[in-house]
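Listing 4. Sequential folding, example run.
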Amino acid sequence: MKGLKPLLIALAVLCPTVAQAQDFPNRNIRLIVPFPPGGPNDIIARVVGKRMEEILKQTIVVDNRSGQGGVLGTDLVAKAAPNGYTVGIASAGALAISPSMEKVAYDTLKDLQPVTLVAKIPEMLVVATSVPASNMKELVALASSSGPGSMPHLAGELFKLTAKIDMTHVPYKGAAPAVNDLLGQQVQMVFLDLPVLLPQINAGKLRPIAVGAPERVPSAPDVPTTAEVGMPDLLTENWYGMVAPAHTPPKIVAILNKAAVEAIKDSEVKEKLASQGAILVGDKPEQFAAYIDSETKKWAMVIKEAGVPTTK
């Protein structure tokens, strides 16, 4: 009988985790969005989260926790209990760029469990209508972005490296003031998420030069890709992915992944997010982990070669 005690103790320790995975989810799930309401990250999270709610038959509560370019909200996910009841949809900035730019309290691939890549949103390069350039070859201008260390900032730095030209980075606290200054001729060009620029492009107030995606996007079919204008290495897509705390049980990760991918593939979800210029993905956790790793290395190289100031 003495020999049975260790086995019984081990079973007692394992059973709660197994049971937890088997009946997951049985209560509300908190979905952290590390940006304010109304932006692309928030809209994507709410649309996908709503469909997941229907699939999982449990309420998903969106919790906006903005700050430090998405880092603060992402850190909350990393520090949450690894039980599947707190997840987040975070951006490329928080998951792949900020760790090379500044000291963050988490290691993306050690403290977070990738669930799935949700969507990509191409960055578009546009110029003010006063700039005498209608294509990439003619473009010689200053650069502006929505903030240091953001995807638009590093898209501009990658453009400088690729085109071998010199430009001045003008940081802004957000996309809206950057667009306003572009319209007001205070800056000459900008790299920004596609949905932010489309209304001004359609109104003829901004001139598109290229989109940093492998293929042309349906919402701007006449705008060439960077590859088409001779810069195949200038791929600048912002992206958003679902993550959970590290050590979340694999069975729970699998349940979350299945629900998220089903939501992402839903035709109504695609239709609702079309206005955001979102290219919906939905892949396996290991594929998303590999993508985060490759993106982290890519932007770390850009930061180093461009001499972008960091606070690490």
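-- end of first protein; second protein begins --
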Amino acid sequence: MRPYVGRLAPSPTGALHLGNARTFMIAYLRARSLGGRLLFRMEDLDHPKDKPGAAAEAIRDLRWLGFEWDDECVQSERKDLYRDAIATLHSRGKVYPCVCSRRDVEAAQSAPHDGDQLFYPGTCRGRFASWREAADALSGTGRIPCWRFRVPDGTRIAFEDAFAGRVEQDVSATLGDFPLARDESGAGYTLACVVDDLATGVTEVVRGDDLLAATPAQILLARELAGSDRRISYCHVPLVVGPDGRRLAKRHGDTRIASFREAGTDPRRLLGFLAASCGWAEEGELVSLADLVPRFDLSTLPRAPLMVQYPQVMTTRCP
């Protein structure tokens, strides 16, 4: 077995909040309890949504909570890797340029869909001989093509998630040809995530279960880029939600880690609050990440999302 390598991968699209901190805490403890290494990756490719200063603040928040890692990288500095991956896939006939807009894809749906997981029926398969031809077809529209991964009919992906259990999906029937990049040499989340996980030797990804549905496509892409012998395992854990059952956001009050830090909260109190929700600390206990490593037990983590109410969160501000 390969030595365990995990990762923390925040995005500078907003401030870290309690939900992010809980998921990162689980990822950290999973790696350290197995004697593994932990990588830090700033996923800063979502430029329209990136917030100025958010990347630096995320690092301050994590350091304040006691997180430390063994290596780090920044996705915006790794674009050559993504461009090379697209070139490799293109040479194998695994990707093609697509000019369909999201509205076009939505109009082509034969059944209702949830969230961002849209089925793409392969409208542009074989339509253009090159990226340039596809780009010329969009001339004057203000849009550019995207690269799509060609999913063969009948493609099923099955894997055993460390927390969610067995997951099986017919990618060809639920996603179809999924997008990889929104410009000729760029990269979307799926492509950049897979390329970086493979390049940095990640053995397991621990993240929120809102990304569980995106995993089969990532496994399929990883197999194409690295072969079936280089497998990445997954562990998807429940989110932290507000009283309305939706993931934490501004509407649920101020649950930003920076707010607790700036208010003088003892970080051990915040970690104790989060650890107690996982069964690894007593209510009100002050703990550090080092304290929690020997207590880590994935089997005690509740299956349901953690519901947090704003007054409840406020109690963690007390020094």
